Predict the 3D structure of the following.
Amino acid sequence: MLNTDTAPGPGTSGDALRERIAAELLAARERTAALTGCVEEPDLVAQHSPLMSPLVWDLAHIGNQEELWLLRNVGGRDPLHPEIDPLYDAFEHPRAERPSLPLLPPAEARAYTHEVRGRVLDLLETTALDGTGLLRGGFAFGMIAQHEQQHDETMLITHQLRHGPPVLADPPPAPAPGDAAALPAEVLIPAGDFTMGAAGEPWALDNERPAHLVHVPAFFLDTVPVTNGAYQRFIADGGYDDPRWWTAEGWQHRQRAGLTAPLFWSRDGATWLRRRFGTTEPVPADEPVVHVSWYEADAYARWAGRRLPTEAEWEKAARHDPATGRTRRYPWGDADPTPAHANLGQRHLRPAPAGSYPAGASAYGARQLMGDVWEWTGSDFTPYPGFRAWPYREYSEVFFGSDHKVLRGGSFAVAPVVGRATFRNWDYPVRRQIFAGFRTARDAEPRPGRTAAGAA
């Protein structure tokens, strides 16, 4: 089993823990209802991209996983509808095949998830949360709250891929700080050890564990994510047409897929436009670039004479406090995120301007390491030393290897319950529909075997 030698933090035991679990479950369900209630039935059952499931599949899958883990596994209850289990097993049917399955219609899917949730809240009231394994610190309930919020982000991606008029209420963008133009281009992260991975986080998932000591050589990291304006200079300089900046696999993909700009971008004369949740608008130069693949991010970094940071570099820059030697929970400290710290939770349907959220800066001065855009790193998705799959192999272990690249930091679509500084996301290097951007790094001093662009 997974090393679970963590305990709930202060104020999260007994009734307070139940209240937190109930609040997280409610927040996730409100978001699910908003994402599925803003469109008519044809949009719910349609597949808007072969990369994504129909929204109605995500809806019923959320309820099915909640039933499997909480009602059956934790509560020992009999299955409500065992015949639908294979339909909503994510490993049984690839996304492209799911529209052809006999899925629950929208009304039945809503009724099913509603029934499951009512029984789960009853179970929460009577379940001891001070046990071991799945119940320690309320882990099983926290895992399900995170699972629903992860699917909510997936459904938001589906909304971005959907064609048609806007259906999501677009709140005003986050205000940019007055000091953004005065920020240094990069920050220095000195050489040294730091503790990487989750410790003391009862809801951390298996790939975040165990915490372990890592030595990171000195490096420089961009203070903010790469912006649309900076990325436009890469395009204007012929970055998409010069194989020098691309890996062999990346250049083959760029040619095969016909890549010329981030996904959802188009040209109108000299103006770059983007489609964002049904609205076409000029590309804002000061926002972090989003909807770029790992191959594109890596090519930009090489063009700039830099490289993508490793996963360990990213986490040290985000969490290490050189003044105390401690590893923080978040870039700003140990306190849970607030709207002053980061752009999380679908509060704004876009990244905030680069340099925003000074209250969320790391100890080294880097900003927006949490929220806004997932950040591609240069690392493959591999297990930490001492990793043990728990509570099931299919969450992480089956994805380990060089096929997937690690993303860190979350995006504007990530809920705070998921947005930990230790959370590890991963995807294929060709993926662009996700809310992914990047920032670049460079060595502070030459390292054997590494080129100027960091290709080592």
